[in-house]
Q: What sequence folds into this?
């Protein structure tokens, strides 16, 4: 079943959609959800794209995330375009921070996660996180696969504190 969480990060409202065997709605929280997918879990977007965090390799200050995707939808899909939607992120100081592109030396043994995937196809690829450059160690990998217009409120009981905002649809792995 589909679980949906909404929470605000640096003035941006985030909607996290995940597929689980069981389902219930969780109230808005100021912190990211802690019970979501973990390493080796396959999470599925509402569009039928299954993404699995296969494993994590540690190389000095780099974390390399091995991902597998299967497109079960009826059309080609975008996967990782390194801007806005369809990108991998981590949270730093309450803000979305995109994962950097793989360096040329990494690409020889760790091919980058591709930009798109044909219907019915599957693919393996990698994304990187550099703890030295980021100044933090992430405990979540977030795959943002879309956004929708929404409303954010400073006080949910007072509608005068509400304003238009953008909600992101994302898969989240904890590790």
A:
């Amino acid at each position: 079943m589909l679980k949906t969480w909404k929470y605000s990060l640096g003035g941006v409202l985030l909607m996290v959609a995940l597929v689980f065997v069981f389902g219930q709605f969780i109230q808005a929280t100021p912190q990211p959800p802690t019970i979501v997918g973990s390493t080796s879990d396959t999470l599925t977007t509402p569009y039928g794209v299954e993404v699995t965090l296969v494993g994590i390799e540690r190389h000095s200050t780099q974390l390399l995330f091995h991902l597998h995707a299967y497109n079960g939808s009826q059309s080609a899909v975008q996967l990782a375009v390194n801007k806005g939607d369809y990108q991998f992120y981590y949270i730093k100081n309450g803000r979305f921070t995109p994962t950097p592109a793989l360096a040329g030396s990494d690409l020889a043994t760790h091919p980058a996660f591709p930009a798109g995937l044909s219907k019915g196809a599957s693919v393996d690829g990698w994304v990187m996180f550099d703890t030295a450059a980021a100044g933090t160690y992430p405990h979540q990998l977030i795959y943002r696969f879309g956004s929708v217009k929404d409303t954010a409120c400073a006080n949910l009981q007072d509608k005068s504190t509400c304003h238009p905002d953008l909600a992101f649809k994302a898969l989240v792995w904890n590790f």
